Amino acid sequence: MKIFLTLLLILTAYHCIAQTAISGRITDQKRIAVPGVNIYLKGAYDGTTSDTEGRFHLNTAETGTQTLNVQAIGSKSQELELELNGQPLDLNILLNEVINQLNAVTISAGAMEAGDEKKSVVLKPLDIVTTSGAMGNITAALLTLPGTSTVGSDGRLFVRGGDASETAIYIDGLQVGNAFGSTTSNVPTRARFSPNLFKGSFFSTGGYSAEYGQALSSTLALNTLDLPLRNQGDVSIMSLGDGYTQTLVKNNRALTASANYYNLAPYQSLVRQNFDWEKAPSSWDSEISLRQKWGNAVTGKAGFFKAIKDVFTYSNSRLKVNLENCADNDILISRERMGAFKSWLGQ
Questions:
Q1: Quick one: average pLDDT of 47-57?
Q2: 267 and 283 share one domain
Q3: Which whole number is the average pLDDT over 190-200?
Q4: Is 74 left (phi over 0), alpha (psi -120 to 50) or beta?
């Protein structure tokens, strides 16, 4: 046991003798003590920090040429080459302040944008015609978005519990008085305008800018197409109808004509109806649009003249309802042609 303790004391004394003590004081350019400075040997685990008076003390078993790193926030880092041979070292380290220069900062005052389209849902014409169940109807495609309410017997835009009259529809910045076609009771209506007439639609179910101040629930802004690049014809084939659009371009003007036919007979043959229809509702519609570019963009006086007109609209539906509470079991037959509504009673 005595031999073991003797060997342990000899090894401990040898280890203490082999260590090198590094101490010193760290100050700045004004000879003021710098506390909290990190001092450590590069590539080793030996290190310490300076106290409130800038003093530090470090013992290390490393030998030979070593690099002492001195780092402090706001000061330039230093690397000192030291020769460690067991002799104590006393250092006076002077730290230089580092001045960081920021790049130029541009401050711009906030402003309200009159037309805030970044917070809206943007739909292209292809998105509308490819939406399942929309059948090429702009409002039907928008009713699939969050925040809208679907009213099966209406077809107009109902947003967040509001009435359809609270949703304002704009075309090229002008509010549309009536954007929907006429229909009979309990039959959803369709938008009067084809999605192919517009280059994009901006629909907001939340906040909107002061540009649309007459709206209450939401806004639907439609922007018509500018001058087309070439002549083209488009054919649309749907399960409930067909359509064709022809565009002619010459110089700075363009003429577009379209015709569509819809028939609900295929749908009614698959889905049972609550009403007894003599004939499935069907409709024809056609429209024409003219676009004329005028002025010179270089001089700052340029623009577009755009005109859209429904040329012909025809709808036909025969609705027969049994009135069990009426005398003699009369039958009410209603008929709508070209927007005129007639009714009569028969035996």
A1: 92
A2: yes
A3: 79
A4: left
